Amino acid sequence: MFADFFNSISDYAKTRFTNPLLGTIVAVWFIRNFDFVFALFNFADGVTLTQKVDYFHRYFKVHGTTTELCTVIMYAFFILLGTFLLLLFSRGLTNGYIVLLNLVNKSTDVGTVVSRSMYDELRKTYNTVKSERDTLRSKETSHDEALKILKLEIESKEKQYSELNDEFSKKTAESDLIYEELSAKHISLDESHNKLKSELQYKTNEADKFQAKYLLNKIQDSEVIKEIFTADSIEIHLNQYKSSQVEIGITELEKIEPALRLLLQENEIKNFIEISLLAENFRYFPSELADYQLVVKLRDFKLLLTEANMKVVNNKVNTKDLDLSDLGEHVSKIFKIMLLK
Predict the structure, then answer these.
(1) d(C-alpha 283, C-alpha 91), whole Å
(2) Is the pTM of this model over 0.90?
(3) pLDDT tens digit sequence for 100-148
(4) Which region holds residue 165: left if phi is over 0, alpha if psi is between -120 and 50, else beta?
(5) Using the 8-state DSSP alphabet, how is residue 285 labeled?
(6) Would you state the torsion angle of the CA atoms of residues 22, 24, 26, 31, taken in this order, to the nearest 10 degrees?
(7) Long-range contacts of 255-261 (CB under 8 A, 24+ apart)
(8) What is the DSSP-derived secondary structure letter of residue 247?
(9) 265 in Cβ contact with 294 (< 8 Å)
(10) Which one of 53, 97, 246, 281 has the minimum C-beta count within 10 Å?
């Protein structure tokens, strides 16, 4: 009993879902509302359920449920009507082809006896075909002779190619040998270059180290500081430096003179030179310390930059944690020029 009941429901569902009108309506609605179907499965991350429901309400409110349904049914009706007309037209073509084929078969069924005129026509066609066959055979013979000549030429070219290939292989082997020799020389030159480069770097480092030590020793003499770093000499060297540094902007150049005068006024030229030399050459003086208050003062002058994690121990800082600002580099270069003259 229950089996019959469920079979009846299943048959009814199959009948309804296989109905062409229902299938066409569903297909048309899906095509016309593709945006809605696509959005149903592709909402952006973070969209809430309320926002989704609100989107569905607004969508059906804009498109109108009744109007949309009528439009879909109308499209489905015209599509089914067009399909029916195409099937009807196809059937008509099939029937017409069958009728025409029967007529052709009736008109061409002449039996085993043919007329004299048809025989003469066939004989004429046969003679024409035979003449064309003989002509083709003659051409084939001439083509065979040309093919033999061409084969001989190909064999000659292959022999020449083999000779050239052997010569090329010989030249290639010679080139490979020369390339290996050049590669070995190149490697040797690279090793010599790297060695010279290392020696040059070493000598450069030694020269920088020597210059730094020389300048540090020189500024220890207070009389030398007073003799070299006067207001007039500083102004002269500043003007010379400005004229040689054409790539520096005017605004940056204008900051150098006040910084020089401030160091002269505060009597901090010696301290600045010492700290700048130690900061620039910290790899040669890794354990040198500077007074923290002096570092802060020079930093306030915009001449020094300090590390964010700079450690202060007993009111001292390691000079390797210090760096010159752009302004400090210009001032340091001027002082070096004055000391080295």
Answers:
(1) 98
(2) no
(3) 877 776 665 545 455 678 878 888 888 889 888 888 888 888 888 888 8
(4) alpha
(5) S
(6) -170
(7) 255/302, 255/327, 256/327, 256/330, 256/331, 256/334, 259/301, 259/302, 259/303, 259/327, 259/331, 260/234, 260/331, 260/334, 261/231, 261/234
(8) T
(9) no
(10) 246
